[in-house]
Amino acid sequence: MEETSLYELTVPARFENLALIGDFISGVARRAGFDEKGVFNLQLACDEACTNVIEHAYAGGPGQIRIAVTVYPDRIQIQVHDTGRPFDPRAVRAPDLEAPLERRETGGLGLHFMRSIMDEVRFEFDQDGNRLTMVKRRAP
């Protein structure tokens, strides 16, 4: 794929739309030439991001999630946009993956997955809402 392509999806911020979002991401990722592991990882990162939007930005209330996926020759970029409550990603403590399950604090695991899977994870907050940009480069 030599040219840049843009794909967009806007859905209500509801848990039942996570499957639709996953199908959208996997379809674009496959068209972009990612293998099954790459497709799964992109779906996982986007699922975690959208789950956080539903749970935290909108707190289960009404709202929209807009996903824009740009496919470049060397990478894929996923932007998740919402107009819910912003948050400070620096305030999210890294999960203690060594602690026994019963002693682990809740929270932070989704952000950890996103940062582990993707090559870049950036948050922006302004008058237009919240934007999470995730980038995954293709293997050379």
Question: What's the quick description here?
Answer:
With 140 residues, the chain is α+β, with helices and mostly antiparallel strands. It contains three helices and five strands; from the N terminus they run βααββαββ. It has a five-stranded antiparallel beta sheet, with helices on one face.
How would you describe this structure in keywords?
Heat Shock Protein 90; alpha+beta; 32% helix; 140 residues; globular; five-stranded antiparallel beta sheet
Task: Explain what you see.
It is a single chain. This protein has 140 residues and is an alpha+beta fold. It has one domain (5-137): Histidine kinase-like ATPase, C-terminal domain (Heat Shock Protein 90, 2-Layer Sandwich). The chain contains 3 helices and 5 strands. It has a 5-stranded antiparallel beta sheet, with helices on one face. Strand 4 and strand 5 (129-137) form a beta hairpin. Helix 1 runs antiparallel to helix 2 (36-57) and helix 2 runs antiparallel to helix 3 (109-117). The longest helix has 22 residues, at 36-57. It is globular. It starts with a strand and ends with a strand. The model has no long low-confidence stretch (mean pLDDT 87).
